[in-house]
Structure formats: C-alpha cells, structure tokens
User: Which sequence fits this backbone?
C-alpha cells in the first residue's frame, strides 16, 4: 500500500459489496434514497454533504461532493459558506466545552 | 471585449485536425478500456441508431464569430473565414422546399456575420418554416449594423436561442471572454424591448447553459429557476426556457480536458452516466446538420469531426430525403456526451 488515499479508490466504492453484499446493497439503496429530492432539494443535500465531508475530513467525500455541488448548480460562494458552517460547528463544539471547563474550575476552586 | 482564447487552427494545434481528435477519442491510452458508444447502444438494444422523421434542418452558416469561447466545439472565432456561400444557401432552400421539415435552426460561429443571413431568413420564412437562430447575444451590440437584429427577429417571429453559461459575470466571462456577460445582458434587454419573452408576445428567447468546466450540467428545471431569479432581480431581463447542454469532448473543450489532465475522468463520467432513455431521444434522430460548405451530417458535433452522413450522397446539392430516411446514424465516442445523465441536445435535456 503506497498511500492510504488513492483517488481511483473513490470509483471502487461499490466494491465494498465484494466482502459483504447484503449490507452493501442495503447501504447503497438507503444512500440513494437519502440524496433523492425530498423536503430538501438535491442541491441542499449536496451542500450539507459537502459541509459534513469537511467536518469528517474525508478526501473521497470532498472530491465527490465538490463535483456534485457544482453539477447541482451551486456557486463557489455557496460551497465555501457550507464549509464555514462545518468549521463554525467544529470550532463552536470545542469552545462550548469551555463551559464544562469553567464548571470544573468553579467546582474545585474556593 | 477581450477574447477568451484563439482558435485551434490559428494556434496550429494538432487538435485542429479532426482525424487527430478522432484518434484521441477512439484510442487514447487512458480511455481505451472504456466501452465504445456502439457497444453501449448494442447492450441496450439500441443499435444501429436509426433516424425518425426529420424535424430540424440545422445550418452552420460559417465559423466566423465575434467571440472565441474556451469550450467552443466549432473552433469558431474572429480569425475563421469559412462562410456558407449564397449558392450553398440556395441549395439548402431547394432541399427544404422538397420537404416539410418544420424548423430551420441557424448556427455558426455567429450566423448573423454571414452577409446573406437576412436574405436567407426571409427565404425560409417565405417557405412557411419556423426559423430558430443560435444568437450569441453579444453580436447584437458588437457593431451598429447589428443593433436592429431584435426588431428583425421579432418581425419574423424568429425563435432566439442564446448561450449564457451562468447568471453572473465571473463565470460567464471566464468561458466566453471579458465583458461578454455585460454585453449579453444589454442584448437581452434589447430583445425584451422588442417583445421577446414578454407574456403573450409569442416571441421566444431561450438561454443555453453549459457547465463552465469538466462537470455534467445540473437539473434543467432547478437551474432555470436560479437563472430566472438572478437575471430578473439583479438585471431586470427575462427569458423563456433554459436549455442545458453537456460539453462535448471535442475541439476546444477537448483541448481543455487534455491540458488539465481531466480527459480520462470526464470520459469515464460520461460513460458511467450512459442513460438508455436519453439515447432513445438523441437529437440526431430528428435533426440534420449542414456544414458551411454544404456537406451533410447527422448532428452539429459529427460535423465538427467531419463525420458525414452515411448516404451515397453527402452534399446538400445531391442528397435526397429518401437517402436520409434510409441512413444509419454515424456514432463515435463523443456521442456519450448526448446520452449522459439527463441527456443533452440542442433542445436541452432529454430524459
């Protein structure tokens, strides 16, 4: 294994079924339904996926949902705002735990 | 207006040779493993591809254009001098008169730059056919002699179909050249003033969207809503429908793909997105395309690859409607561009 991440592996996602077909079939069917037009548009779902891809820092997902967002007519500005949402939640998630730290400080302090 | 690029021909690019383009499409080492388009058709019981009734007679009036867009499949531009002659246009009229093909679709280059353009439009109208013009918009404001085109079109109920790859200047100008967006909006306003896209005027102004890069176009209805909102609220201009067209992997777009190392990925995307429903409705089944020199093709893209119709006569002066009806449509790897996803045609998405 020359590298942990290989761009060509994204196109082989479907081959996870080789080791466990029943679960893969259920996953891909569910995955397709998740991204179908619903109460949210396909473009909104694609931008959410792009934001989550940055939060979980998955290179495959960033690759796939950058292309998908563009294909759904999202602009660069929309896409960067989605990434900021992910970053804000990640940053906020750290900072809000500062309250926990403060509670502990108050607990142990005279 | 700054040009986005210059023609492959002017630059002496090897891609200006259509036989070289075909070699890339058929046997580039990165895509040699992909199924041929004919194989994909056969796998879905669609081969050989046969024509239906011809509804659209598309005439390429010349490669001359006031723009030089980065993705142009015609390799058109200000340096191209190929123009359909009056003699060839008369041959087109004679063919049309012997048929009942209802729509005559004029394209280029900028078809308005052909000196016989207005005469030809009038002759087609006299035959009782609908004229559709692929107007790049900026030609209307490029020179005072073109400023009255909106009135000319309106008086003849010409259906205007105009390229606008995005609803903002940044994306549009990146593909089509500096200042193109502002000029396009000015031209749209002139068309609106002449009655185009006004309720009950019967004058149609459609826009053509094609992606500014190596991606497939998005859902036509969704993008049409985006375009209408943005163009109406920010620029107070109106249009009827948005037509989404996939960029074909030929000519200057092929150059872009190869130069960026995206050719393999783009072809794979097209092949993986092969949609049999779209393949059944491809435009070559109801369209014929006439080159500036009178040669006849199954579609505009075959024309740009010099793939003439598979008939005993291939020139409009000698071709007969019977020969056309009996032909088999010529296909090659670029045809995957029309069958990917929701499909693509000069009239928009297919499935």
Assistant:
């Amino acid at each position: 294994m020359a590298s942990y991440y290989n761009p060509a592996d994204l196109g082989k996602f479907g081959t996870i079924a080789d080791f466990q077909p029943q679960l893969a079939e259920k996953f891909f069917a569910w995955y397709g339904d998740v991204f179908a037009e619903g109460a949210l548009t396909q473009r909104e779902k694609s931008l959410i996926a792009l934001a989550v891809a940055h939060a979980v820092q998955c290179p495959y997902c960033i690759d796939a949902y950058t292309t998908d967002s563009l294909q759904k007519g999202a602009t660069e500005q929309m896409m960067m705002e989605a990434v900021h949402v992910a970053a804000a939640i990640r940053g906020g998630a750290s900072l809000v735990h500062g309250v926990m730290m403060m509670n502990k400080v108050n607990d142990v302090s005279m | 207006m700054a040009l986005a690029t210059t023609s492959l021909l002017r630059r002496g690019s090897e891609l200006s040779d259509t036989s070289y383009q075909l070699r890339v499409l058929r046997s580039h080492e990165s895509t040699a493993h992909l199924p041929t388009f004919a194989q994909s058709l056969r796998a879905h019981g669609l081969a050989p591809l046969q024509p239906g009734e011809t509804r659209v007679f598309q005439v390429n009036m010349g490669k001359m254009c006031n723009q030089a867009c980065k993705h142009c499949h015609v390799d058109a531009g200000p340096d191209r001098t190929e123009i359909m002659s009056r003699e060839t246009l008369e041959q087109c009229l004679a063919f049309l008169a012997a048929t009942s093909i209802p729509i005559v679709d004029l394209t280029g280059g900028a078809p308005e730059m052909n000196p016989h353009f207005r005469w030809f439009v009038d002759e087609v109208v006299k035959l009782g056919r609908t004229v559709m013009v692929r107007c790049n918009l900026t030609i209307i404001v490029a020179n005072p002699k073109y400023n009255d085109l909106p009135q000319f079109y309106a008086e003849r109920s010409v259906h205007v179909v105009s390229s606008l790859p995005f609803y903002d200047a940044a994306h549009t100008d990146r593909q089509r050249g500096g200042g193109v967006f502002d000029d396009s909006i000015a031209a749209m306003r002139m068309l609106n003033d002449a009655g185009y896209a006004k309720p009950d005027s019967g004058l149609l102004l459609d826009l053509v969207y094609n992606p500014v890069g190596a991606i497939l176009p998005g859902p036509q209805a969704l993008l049409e809503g985006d375009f209408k909102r943005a163009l109406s609220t920010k620029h107070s201009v109106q249009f009827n429908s948005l037509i989404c067209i996939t960029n074909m992997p030929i000519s200057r777009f092929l150059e872009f793909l190869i130069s960026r190392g995206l050719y393999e990925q783009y072809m794979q995307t097209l092949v993986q997105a092969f949609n049999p429903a779209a393949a059944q409705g491809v435009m070559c089944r109801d369209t014929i395309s006439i080159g500036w020199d009178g040669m006849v093709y199954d579609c505009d893209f075959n024309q740009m690859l010099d793939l003439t119709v598979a008939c005993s006569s291939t020139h409009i002066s000698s071709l007969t409607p019977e020969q056309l009806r009996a032909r088999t449509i010529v296909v090659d790897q670029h045809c995957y561009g029309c069958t990917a996803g929701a499909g693509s045609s000069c009239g928009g998405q297919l499935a």
